[in-house]
């Protein structure tokens, strides 16, 4: 019996090795973020950049190793829809932060 599971459309569902690698990477990235924040020996900007970078890497690890997001399955349409979703989220979150910043700057008394 094969270690890799496939669905009816031929897409791979991963193997025990890919799940183990994903789990180990997720734990390591979480421990890196936790360690940087809990030690307190880094400046706040360094902590923020480290947490954001490890969070983005962890999202990518989980999408590729656990959710099997790749360019081969479904003709690449799942990647296109994911990129579109990220673009919409960036526009909404970025626009909201921009509006809140402008409101803060313009409403300051003094």
Automatic annotation (TrEMBL):
Q: Which residues cross the membrane?
A: 20-39, 46-67, 79-100
Q: Which domain of life is it from?
A: Bacteria
Q: Some GO term, biological process aspect, for this entry: which one? A: electron transport coupled proton transport
- GO molecular function, a single term: proton transmembrane transporter activity
Query: Where mainly located?
Result: membrane
Q: Where in the cell is it found?
A: Cell membrane
Keywords, in A-Z order: Cell membrane, Electron transport, Membrane, Oxidoreductase, Transmembrane, Transmembrane helix, Transport
Q: How does this protein lie in the membrane? A: Multi-pass membrane protein
Under InterPro entries, the record lists: Cyt_c_oxidase_su4_prok, Cyt_o_ubiqinol_oxidase_su4, Cytochrome_c_oxidase_bac_sub4
Cellular component GO terms, alphabetically?
cytochrome o ubiquinol oxidase complex; plasma membrane
Q: How does it assemble?
A: Heterooctamer of two A chains, two B chains, two C chains and two D chains.
The family line of this record is: Belongs to the cytochrome c oxidase bacterial subunit 4 family.
NCBIfam families to which the protein is assigned, alphabetical: CyoD
This protein's name: Cytochrome bo(3) ubiquinol oxidase subunit 4
Species this chain originates from = Salinicola corii
Q: Which gene encodes it?
A: cyoD
């Amino acid at each position: 019996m094969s270690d890799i599971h496939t669905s009816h459309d031929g897409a791979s569902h991963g193997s025990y090795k890919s799940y183990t690698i994903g789990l180990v990477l997720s734990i390591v990235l979480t421990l890196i973020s936790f360690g940087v924040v809990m030690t307190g020996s880094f400046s706040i900007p360094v902590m923020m950049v480290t947490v954001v970078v490890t969070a983005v890497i962890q999202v990518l690890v989980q999408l590729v190793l656990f959710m099997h997001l790749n360019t081969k399955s479904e003709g690449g349409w799942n990647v296109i829809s994911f990129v579109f979703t990220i673009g919409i989220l960036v526009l909404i979150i970025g626009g909201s932060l921009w509006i809140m910043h402008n409101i803060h700057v313009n409403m300051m008394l003094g």
